[in-house]
Amino acid sequence: MSDVSFDAAAAVSAPRTRRRARLPVPVVLALGWLALMLLVAVAADLLSPFPYTALDLRNRLSPPVGMGGAWLHALGTDELGRDVLSRLITSIRMSLLIAFGATAISAVLGVTLGFLAAHFRGLVEQAVLALVDFQAAMPFLILALAVLAFFGNSLPLFICLLGLNGWERYARIARGLAVSAGSQGYAAAVKGLGASPWRVYGRHVLPNIASTLIVSMTLAFPEIILLESGLSFLGLGVQPPMTSLGNMVGYGREYLTRAPWILLAPSSVIVLTTLSVSLVGDWLRDRLDPTLR
Amino acid sequence: MLRFLGLRLARALLTLVLVVTFAFVVLRLSGDPALLILSADAPPEAVAAFRQAWGLNDPIWQQYLRYFAAIFRGDLGQSMRDGRPAVELVAERIPATLALTLPALLMKLGIGIPAGIYAALHRNSFADRAVMLLAVAGFTVPSFVLGLVLVLVFAVQLGWLPSGGQENWRHAVLPVLTLGIGGAAVLARFTRSAMLEVLGQPYMRTALAKGVPWARAVRRHGLPNAAIPTVTIVGFMVGSLLAGAVVVESVFSWPGVGRLLVVAVANRDLAVVQCILLLVATTMVSANLVVDLLYGVLDPRLRAAPREATA
């Protein structure tokens, strides 16, 4: 798209008076939910009552507690008698792993390209900008669909592919900030002292733009979760026997009328997680970096 | 202005060339289409004949040039599945997709923009908080979840509307709602922040200080300035009229371009996927070009200074 939107957004509303207030309640709740999700992801093996692929053929499509089910399968079971809670726990781990991996990849890629553009200017910069335009001009889902199905699908490839989503935003930010840092005293000063470009960018420019980057990463994180779950929902993302949140929704869709719980559990987790990250991201942005607004 | 136009046009063309190259490289180098179409244990003669027929034996750059030349002739190859021209297959799906995305676009614009402006003008009021809450919810609920929940409520529980397929307008209601709600939320959020930013600018204060009434200041100075960032995102929405319904079409088994794409990708039908990629890229790039021109109209400063000044 164009720089105009970004710059218009960067021409900030007046800095608001900063109150040292307590955390707003929604943010506390969101942080609590995210902590829970992280815990679940880390301790997935300890927490899940059954292996996520284990069949319990005597309890197929058994409803969750509260809809007439037993505590044995607290969130019910699916058509094959697999425990929904265990699958949910494994899915949370998978989806978070993918989201973290992809966010990290796109941030590193974007920042590197942005710095390269800012450092070399000229042709390199034009090439990076053309790539940025290309990336911003295509709906990423379409690109991802094409790549995925034609390269076949494996987990590392899938993560790398999602890592290509949104790098152009980091590149734009990193380039813009690095260029303006170049005209500020500190970058010129360390350069004058004989620091290598690696040192200038890695040790001096990067820390100075870190808060902006962290905020953009938080804002991009829910997008990756939605993308992953969307692709998995279409059957083109994480492949069985592995499972992810979107995968579970896609599977549960077949049983929408008979066993809606299969689909509702992962759907709620997706919604709550993206909602929480967005809330925290918005709050961070307001606190750390109002220029992104 | 001419220079501005030329630069934009060149960029648009470059993007298209990149898309074609991307499509070609990714789709052609990723695997042997012959083995995929014919299955791995097909007799070698059949594979050889297939490769010959589709020109898969030639060096890759020849295939690439041929592909480019074919595109200029409007020939995007045939579907490897049923041998019909890919363009035809895709073209016959376009009306179905537009039947969903056009009403959804109207819904996004009709709800999102007014809601965003209202929220900005009544900042921190109850209405503002409600709009923002709904907007965040609309942004964080993925379309397939929203669609399935709507199906669960309106088709399964209440039985008011059909859950999928495409026979009459009733079948379109749920998919259009699904698309429209999510988009309206994004647009409302975006419009609100664009508007808030403008309201804090010095020229608004100047206008009010010299005695311009509030409503007139908003109309004359606020809205036009807030329109600039909003136009960008609306342009993106217009550009994705053809591609924006991939997931929703799948949820509602709606026979549009998106469903075709998913099926073609699952079948590794090269020609059809390339054709859709190119179609989507062209709509997207044209929409962006129009947006750039609109910038010129909306903001005279941009006519003189194309990129460097703003970057």
From TrEMBL, chain A:
It is a multi-pass membrane protein. Belongs to the binding-protein-dependent transport system permease family. Its main location: membrane. This is ABC transporter permease. The keyword NADP does not apply. One of its GO terms (biological process) is transmembrane transport. Residues 92-281 form the ABC transmembrane type-1 domain. It is found in: Cell membrane. Keywords: Cell membrane, Membrane, Transmembrane, Transmembrane helix, Transport.
